[in-house]
Amino acid sequence: MNSYLEARDQRQQALSRFIGEGHPTVLSLSLNIAGADKLPPGSAGLFAWALREIRAVCAPGGAFEVSQDALGHFAIIASGRDPLQVKRLAVALEEAKPAARLVDLDVYRSGEQIGRSELGLPARTCLLCDQAAVDCMRSKRHSPLEVIAKTHELLANFKA
Fold first, then answer.
1. What helix, strand, coil percent values describe the chain, rounded to 5?
2. Strand, coil or helix: what is 72?
3. Measured between alpha carbons, how far is 147 from 45 in angstroms, rounded to an integer?
């Protein structure tokens, strides 16, 4: 657990560094992997696909940093594109394939995260039902084993 907290702190420091460099748009890319194993089979391929796709449309030749820590794969990408346009592209990527539901792309404008609501979009739905994911997490509507099983199923079926 301590390593998870350290990883979050290091990710936040890297994100703050990119934001502090004055990039108009900064993205963080990670995977939402349920369970203790943050690098299950298929996760490296999904991460590589998402990184390739987002860099192609948002930051060709732009600054980026890729790492792996206790929480799994992580990247920060700087882009000169309009932050709202980048957020739309990020949402489209997160919805492009079933396994892309596990991709987490956060977009920042001047250090402030842009939410889906700013684009008039609904919150992300749960992996297991049609409710808002945040509501299912808060209420613990599904068992951790169900969420882990669905995560592994999505990764097993991933095709780049």
1. 50, 20, 30
2. strand
3. 20
Whole-angstrom Cα distance, residue 127 to residue 118? 23
Count other Cβ atoms within 10 Å, centred on residue 22.
9
Contact 131, 121 (CB under 8 A): no
Tokens of 17: 């560094």
Residue 1's pLDDT is what? 61
Query: Which tokens sit at 5?
Result: 């907290």
Phi, psi of 83 (to 5 degrees): -60, -40
Confidence class for position 120, pLDDT limits 50, 70, 90: very high
Question: What would the pLDDT profile of 57-81 be if each residue is shown by its tens digit?
Answer: 886 667 889 999 999 999 999 988 9
